[in-house]
Every structure is written in C-alpha cells, then in structure tokens.
Design brief:
Blueprint: E1 3-8, H1 12-27, E2 31-32, E3 41-46, H2 51-67, E4 72-77, H3 78-82, H4 84-88, E5 93-97, H5 105-113, E6 155-157, E7 187-192, H6 203-207, E8 211-212, H7 215-227, E9 232-237, H8 253-263, E10 268-271, H9 281-288, E11 296-298, H10 306-311, H11 318-331, E12 336-343, H12 350-361, E13 367-372, H13 390-415, E14 419-428, E15 432-437, E16 442-446, E17 454-458, E18 466-467
Parallel strand pairs: 1-2, 1-3, 3-4, 4-5, 5-6, 7-9, 9-10, 11-12, 12-13, 16-18
Antiparallel strand pairs: 7-8, 14-15, 14-17, 15-16
Helix pairs in contact: 7-8, 12-13
Length: about 475
Amino acid sequence: MATFSIQNFGCRATEADAAALRRELVAQGFELANGQASADLVLLNTCTVTAAADSQARDAVRKIHRENPAARIIVTGCYAQRAPEEIAAIDGVTLVVGNSHQSEIPRLAARLVSGAGGAESDQPRLRSTPNMGGEFVSLAQLSGEAMSLAAGPAKILTGDVSAWTAVQIAAADSLAGPIADERTRPILKIQDGCNNRCAYCVIPLVRGRSRSLPPDQVVAQVRQLHASGTREIVLSGINLGSYGRDLAPREALAALVRRILDETAIEQVRFSSIEPQDVTEDFVSLVGGSSRLAPHFHVPLQSGCDRILRAMHRWYHAEHYAERVALIHRLLPDAAIGADVIAGFPGETDTDFRETCEFIERLPFSYLHVFSFSKRPGTAAETLAAAVPQREIRERARALRALSQRKSEEFRSRQAGRSLRALTLHRQGDDWTEALTGNYLKVRIAGLHPANQWHQVTVATDPAAAAA
C-alpha cells in the first residue's frame, strides 16, 4: 500500500484543506506514513501571505527531497496558485497544483504512485471539473494534451480560481482509523475566498471570490462530526463574517449558528477570524447566550492608526474597532479577544507605530498575531513608496510581540482561580496533558488523559502550572 504525508503551512483554512485532502487520500487507498522520510508521496499545502511563508515552503521541498529522494512531491495551496513556475523549478517537485484544482489531487496522486507511464493514450487527460468555469490551464502549455506523470520536470496545473462557486470540503462521515485524531477540534470550512481588496493582501488573488457552503450542508457536516465523537468544531473561513451573502436566499452567520444550536447536539462551536464590521451586538449576544459557543473572538486590527488603515484599504476607523472590542468585553468580560497586527506597512512612521501601540495598550486583548509587512506581487501595496527599512520592521514586530506577551499575562492573571471547562488535546508530558478552555487558555492538567475529553479545571497564573 502506498504511503503519504502532508505538511501544512498557514491559516485555519489551509488546515481544513489539508484535512480534506488527507481523508480523500485515505479513501483512495493511501496509508499515512510515520513521517516524510518514509513516505511514497509527500504533499505540501502552502501559504503565501508573506515572503517568509514562501521561503519556508521552498526550504521544506529541498529538505524532503534531500532526505527522501524517491518521494513524489506535490505542492499545492496558495503559493502554488500564485507562483507555480517558481515552485516547479525546485529539484524534487513532481507536480504543482493550484487551489483551483486541489480536488483533483487524490486522483493524480494515485496515478503517480502506481507508476503510471507507458503510452500517452493511457495517461489522464486535462479535463474540466464542476464549478471550474473551464479546462485545466497548464503554464507548461499542456492544456488539451495528454499529461504524462512519469518522472521528469514538474507539471503545473492551475486555473482561474475566481471561477469557483463552491466551497471545497471533504465529507465528515467517518473519522476512524488513521485519521481518528481529527475528532479533536476539527476545522469545518464553511466559507472561502474574499471580496475585499486590502492593499497588503494577496489572498483574494489565490482564493477567489467569497463563497459559502449551503446551510443544510453545514448542519449535516456538524451532525456527522458529532456522531463521529467530535466535541468541539471550529467554524472557519477566509472571511467568515461574510458567510451567506452569496447565497440565495441570503443567510447570515448568526442565523446559521442558531440552526447549528437548534438542529445538532455538538457540544462546543468556536469561530475563526471575524472582521470588525461583522462583530455586531446580535452576534456577540448570541455567543454570550449559549454555553455551547466558545467565548473567543479573533478580530483582525492590522493598525491602530487611521492614516495607515486608510492606506491599507481597511473599511473602518480605529475607534470603530475599539467600539466593537468594548462591546465584546461589556457583554462577555472573560472572553478571549485576539487580533492580527502588521508591523511596517509602507509609510508607517514612528508616530504611527506609537499610535498603534497606545491603541492596543488600552484595549482588553488577550493575544496578538504579529506579522511583519511583506510586499506581495499583485497587491496595491506592492508599488507603494516610503518602504519601512527591514531592520525597523523587525524592531517594531518585536515590540508588538512583547506587548502581546504582556496582554496574555494580564488576561491569564484575570482568569486565575476560575473554574473552567477544558478539552484535552494531544500534547502530553511526563505527568500532564494539555487542554484548551472555551476562552482560549491552554492549561496543563495533572496526569495523562486521552484527547477529546472534557475536564473541569482551575486556572493557575503560571501557564506551565497544572490545573487541578
């Protein structure tokens, strides 16, 4: 039986994509390898949010090829969609598949490891797929020709991702055997793509327009996940708050969540990132009114300076954002509130940066995700003048991470002594098991416990301390 390994880079949406591919490969008859060094097939699901993410993917390809030269390497994801020729030029890459054709990977993988060769007439032909809006587009000019999967230069399969009208997921009807670990906090992607055009962001170019999984399918997936033993699911999307705006009739995220609460028995639902304009009083009240909804909000900020927000093409002012955070804190004072922040956007002065830091200081954040600005091809920010020197960007990013650490410690200090329900994870030590509370605190509980179990814990100030 052929073996495979998947290495994932990036956000929760790519994690969901990787989980879908893993299930589909198992369904094709592949077996999970113990690691990349022994796998017949290695799949890299890439991110391209920053230049560093691109570099990590290239380094991973070289390392895998060096340690396992016989492995067939398929590179997919956002980097593969954006710059396929760049990846195909790396030694060891067999196939580069953009997001536009990710659903074809299991079929192609099966042909790769079976040693499909021989006559050209026996090779799979490039063909159209549902919701694609056209045929495969090969940057090697392969369109309409037989595609050989024999050893040789990497083949590239990409297409117009904006033509997609569906959300690509794998059926959640079985989480048994080699993929049973996915029962612990699986990510259910219910939305993909984005219609915004933030100046720094390449994601709309590699993920396409916003599209939503129909609510009946979402509810069915949640039911199946719960039946498999899942206790918590994470609803995810590239722009989750825009869920349902493309559907007919439209259905807002809050309405979908009410259906999940009413029509399924899932024990806890958590949300990925939600834009500030989508943090409404109705939505926050909904979370606060149900013990089955995790009190955890990740609300991208990017900058606390209005001048920089305008340059970023963000759709809000800093005070509008502050009002949304205040709303969460007023209705749910113990909720986790996280934010994304970009250091060193072009034109950001020392004064602008100080304004961002002062803005963050006065808000009840529990953590920050800090990104150093990285020029992305095809974005509006690519051509902006007044670039911030790299040394200054690194210093600002370090300052923001230090600020994040202080905020995290303050939040944990406020939670100390509280009794909270926590779900055990897979990480363990000699005498402890890691668990996650609803408000996104990681704790260590005494003893070794299976993953995916609820425990009532008392929060300690020290994050490494055990919770009884």
